[in-house]
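thought: fold this chain, then report.
action: predict
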Amino acid sequence: MAASIESLLEEISGVEDPLEELQSLKTALLSIPVSALRDSVSGQRFDVIFSLLNSNQRAQVELCVDILERILMALSPEHLAQNYRVELQAGLNHPNETVMILALTQIGRMVEHPDAVTEILNNHDILRAVIQCIAAEKMAVAKQAIQSLSKLSHSKPGLDKLFQSDLLKAMKDVMATSDIVRYRIYELVVEISSVSPISLGYCANSSLISQLIGELTGDDVLTRATAIEMVTSLAHSQHGRQYLSQQGIMDKISNMIRGADTDPFSSLYLPGLVKFFGNLAIMDSPQQVCETYPAFQNKVFEMALDPDPVMIGVALDTLGLLGSTVEGKQVLQKTGEKFKAVLSRMSQLASSGATELRVRSLDAISQLLGLESEQQTEDLLALTESWFHVLSKQPMDMIRDISTQPFPELHCGALRIFTAIATQPWGQKLMIRNPGFMEFILDRSTGQTKEAKDAKFELVGSLLSSSTSAEILGSQNYIRLKTYLREGPYYVSAVASVSTEGAD
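observation:
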């Protein structure tokens, strides 16, 4: 096969319009199993294919990219660094984005390889060209460049090269291109910072993080909204949160929430501020975050009662997130009537209004009501039961009504609430007392989508996973549920065909 590839390469270099020959080479390469491809191509030189990338013919360029993708992935990163570094560097400045992405992908592979990376680190021009790709018009090119540079930061030599050479100036120069490109550099810096406390130290010393933090309170409210997203990403790592806390950023964001009432444009960035604290509460401690920054919790309750659907949506997601933990449930319960008013509002939203908000409300309610078996203390069971009864005078009927509406996402959202209470004895008692509820669960004719069948199956599984269900539901129902579980989510009972004598 290596011989036929060699002859095809000779044919390609000998014709003026090589489309047909390129297609033949592509077909030949696809016919070689991946495991055997390296042996078939490692002895060849593919300069002719690289040279054909310098063409205005899009079809030719794309065929060459397909061929090179297959070949280069079969070669080791070290082989690429030694033999094709110049060609790949040229690809970074190509007008066609598929060529740029091909080059960036292969450079990304080299950067991850302990021997090949040395070749890249010793080649300033390649790294400068990769940095310049962050300013590319096509987002896919910029993303690939960010990914490759982010991989470089996993080693001290890589960090030294990026932050302690004139490449740092190159990054800052590229940032000046536009607001969009500036935020792409911030994205890279946040990714690098998340790797380890050491990489965060390099980014902090470069002044790029303090520049990002400065944009939180900048005059442009849109860049402010993007800045808060980036800072939230930085808070995903423990060392990132520690750094932000040391810099007083939590207090700054809390003050921004407080000051939002007097800013007519706050609706553009307020959701991001609330999401920041919501994520912080889940990663650290809901109680600590809500007690240290009361402005956050007050604002979430306020947003849940707001007429603006954007505000309501963020409040619902945040309440669901907080309420998914035992500590979060206890924090919400401490607010007494305030939270009951919010829960009533969530019930109204789940029952009527825009479908998207109804679904988000159902999901939040199911998170608030869920309790794992090991969390089921007397106090917590009393808490979830009391919340369920705040939803409506007849909460079981209300959720069942929602589940029968002809929208799959509402049907599944309602089933998830039943799944949340199915492991709790009080929930099982309500189910068995609700006329026809067992038949509703076991009826396979409702909810015909895959998602609906999966949601029903999960509900049955939750009921059976509880140690109290056999006693509360009764042995007959328990056996029927076990049969349902054994048959699986997509079981269809065989319908007996009845023939009538003399019908013909």
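thought: worth noting. The radius of gyration is 30 Å.
final: tokens above.
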